[in-house]
Amino acid sequence: MIQARALTKRYGAKVAVDGIDFTVRPGQVTGFLGPNGAGKSTTMRMIVGLDRPTSGGVTVNGRPYAEHRAPLREVGVLLDAKAVHTGRSAFKHLQSLAATHGIPTARVHEVIALTGLDSVARKRVGGFSLGMGQRLGIAAALLGDPATLILDEPVNGLDPEGVTWVRQLVRGLAAEGRTVLLSSHLMSEMAQTADHIIVLGRGQVLADAPVAEIIAGAGGATVRVRTPQPQLLAEALRGATVTPLPDGAVSVHGATAETVGEAAAARGVVLHELTPIASSLEEAYLALTADEVEYRSAQPEAVLR
Ligand SMILES: Nc1ncnc2c1ncn2[C@@H]1O[C@H](COP(=O)(O)OP(=O)(O)OP(=O)(O)O)[C@@H](O)[C@H]1O
Question: Which positions fall inside the ABC transporter domain (predicted)?
Answer without folding.
Answer: 2-227
